[in-house]
Design a protein that fits this description.
By secondary structure, this protein is α/β, with parallel strands linked by helices. The protein is 25% helix and 22% strand. It has two domains: 102 residues, Urease, subunit C, domain 1 (Roll); 281 residues, Metal-dependent hydrolases (TIM Barrel, Alpha-Beta Barrel), CATH 3.20.20. The chain has ten helices and 18 strands. Its cofactor is Zn(2+).
Amino acid sequence: MYDNVFSGKFFFQGSFQELDIGVESGIITDIKKHINHERKILKNAIIPAGTDTHVHFRDPGETEKEDFSTGSISALFGGTTTIFDMPNNRRKIDNYAAYSDKLAIVRRKAFCDFGLYSMFTGTNADIISSESSGIKIYMGETTNAPGTVDFTEKGIQKINNMNIPVLFHAEDGKCLEKHSGIAKNLKEYSATRPPECEDLAIDKAGNMKFSKGVITHLTHDFTTAYVKEVTPHHLLLNYDMPLGAYGKVNPPLRSRETQKELLNGLISGKFNIVSSDHAPHIQNDKVDFEYSKAGIIGVETRIPLMLALVQKKILPFDIFYKTCILNPALLFNLKKGEIKKGNYADFMSIDFSSMERINDYRLHSKTPGSPFNGFNGIFPSIVVMRGETVIDNGELVADRMGKYLKPAVDKS
């Protein structure tokens, strides 16, 4: 009847309850106080595993920085069982052939479940793969993406008809050109990509009337009808910290005051999603600040950092749960993010008393250099994906079992 039955204190319908969870073929089929079956006892608090809607695993094309094996393993160790990978690979994922080739490569390597974005350049709506998990629009130049200037009404309608999330890298290209210049530190770099470039891009994005729009990695609060995403590095880091090139990211880190405003905005419920924007580079790309590449690692530390804020009573658990776990799954109509019948059995065991210092060299990304080295984090001791234990007491105990999860189309 059951493949597995898990027993423990699960976060279920808004509270932690002692329950037995019956699993068949990776799906939760039963939730009871007691199931008469051999049980796997899980200690500590059991919460649904996370979904990270914004990563760059660099595969294919730049696998010296990361590949889907190392990136997805890193995700699992951080309590994330599903990721969505961006399309700004060295070979841009902006047509059906590029998407199909990438999907074939990723399927052979993924340890966690995944989705893949396609890039919308404004004129390529007819050749974007219908299998795309989501669409990414780069409104200004960033790594491997030149920025999009023109959008046709016909193209926007075609994308809307796909009924999948549309994510914006919201920095206006012309504004970036206007402010471009040499930057030798994080504060100077912030001035070359100022908040006004975000404001202009967000205004333009709003005028495009995409039905499922998401503004990614906001560096300041902004009123928009779209879903608002923020990253741990913009919540916890600022340009006055001694991070050097390891803090260089697009959009840039801002002032300490702005960072605090962002964190307060998260605490008060102004943001919908916390994503990592995991974007690794080799160490040689981070030596000289002026010429260093923008991007930091973060898929493994996203949930542990937020859990540490919960334990310190800075961040309400409910906000953590919604932004890191529930809302990302709902955005893509995944059967994840909640303990309920019909959902995948994805969850993790958390000991809230096991706060530790993040150690860059104990993380599992191919590229070291976390700006959160020394920060407090709470890592899961056990991670279960589709009813199978994948992380057990700090060890990877499962082979590659990641699946491509094409979001269910929302007909509402």
